[in-house]
Amino acid sequence: MNTKAMINNLFKHPLFLSGFIFIFLLLAASFVHTVFFQGKIPVTEFLRNNEGNITSFAPFNPLEVPPLGTDEVGRHIIVLLIQGAKYTIGISILVAGLRVIISTIIGLFFENYFSKFNQYLSGLVNGFYYIPAALICYILLYDVIFTPHGEVDGYSIFQKMIFQFFVLTIVAIPTMSLLIGNQLNQIYKSEFITSAKTLGGSRLHILHKHVLPFMVPLLLIQFIQEIIKVLILLIHLGFFHLLFGGTMEQQLDDTQNAYISVSSEWSGMVGNGFNHLGGWSWMFLSVVIAFTLVILALNLVTKGIEDVFLEDRYTTGKNIKKHKRKN
Amino acid sequence: MNLYYRILLKFLLTFIGIILISALPALFDGMKLDISSYLSEVGSIGSSLVHPESITYGHFQTTYFLFPGIWARWRYSMILLFVSFIITFLLALGLTLITIMVTKKIRKTIRIILFIGASIPDIFVIGLSIITAIFIHKHTNIPFFSIASFGDNQIFMLPIIVLTILPTIFFYRTMIYDFEEEISRQYVDVAKSKGLSTYSILFSHVLRNAVIHIFLHSKSIIWFMLSNLLMIEYAFNIDGLMRFMLTNDSSQILAIGLLSLFIPIYIMQASVQIVIEKITGKQVEV
Hints:
The complex is a heterodimer of chains A (327) and B (286). Chain A is mainly α.
């Protein structure tokens, strides 16, 4: 099957299609909101009864202000989510893309030239499997991202974003390069590469004509799984009030601090929502459910790609049986 | 290469790797790279490992010694982690064995539920558990679950439940996959044609061979659980090792904390590795 037919099949795959359409519509709504509505967020600070008297103040629960209620200053959560979607998903896609591209280059380089040291390198990198990614990111990012109350911010938003992109990318590079290196190693050992070598294919020719076509679906799946990992990392960092593009700490009163996101992406709402879990649980639940739906959609996309691209690749007993039954 | 030599080499390399990773904060001075300060930080971590009793940390403008106070925190985190891991493993294994025996239709439903379950972020489960605990507390007045720990009052029940849910889903999912992969092998057909019962095939052959794959997956499950543990300690205000490392901005404490987590986990993994290699004769890698 050639690539074009495979992509055609992919867009006929129901699971892939439903995941893809969900993400696409979410992003489209987010951009439409910014372009045509100037990113305006409707605010309901108080509700009036029939006589025009104020009956209650924000936050409102989803029953009072459908569909998802408001936050503590009365902004509608559904619109906040739509507005933030493009940043959250965009950041994840960008970081995941950078991770995959850089890791592939490093993996190829090491596989071709330094494969002797593989055992030692894998030992050193193994340390990453005993450290939560959120912990190492938190420690690296804290000084730059977090601006405590009353202190002057030393960096611009743009600098902070670049730094955060950098940190979120490099923490995954060692393990991922090793993983991709091992996958490449498997491919280089396989029979069709050996035959290509025997027939006199040069290193570049084999890479270009045999290895990369075999790797691309695997990398695509890796890329989408990596988007999910970045999303989870963003949730975790948001939970620690480390928000993308910087956190501003502001004192509301003596006991409460508000953590304000400089960019309006979702993870800022996780930490704030969690603090009000007892009374205003919808603030937390709506954003976490939004994250869950996006992750679910990405998992559906992965499933679709696996089904279409890797169908004929596994030659385990189960699939052999399946083939026999078909014929 | 010799089995014990491989285990020891991996241990030493990972040990060095963890020290190199914990010194990373010194690499960034604000946003500038500072290699010389990184190297000196690696040196200072190395020397502090030789004299761990002299490490101090500050807390509300008072300086404390790290040892022996860290052991209580370490024990707390370790109990949470290991008890949850054992429950997770047994639960997932039991569920898998049941799943393998039920009809195809039920298995498909289970797989769909697990697919959705694997998309849930850990914070969601933590949040839901707290909402549930508050709800139970409000309506029954039973202080069945304490939501947050204060001072010496250590909570175990709720964190262990939360720390078990998602890893079980992940473990269960990979185990079903491993078992089905193993069942589709040809030796199972041979055994069936020889007239062996399904149960004896499942328990004496399939289980033994699937254990290798399960062991390989357990590494990422433990990593996932460590990440969950960090969130749980922060959310439930647990005075454990993870939260201690998070709130104390010091590479020496980070290195000591990470190593004290790594060593017991690695001992467990290495002993399982030894058992597997002795029994099956196949080479596996932690």
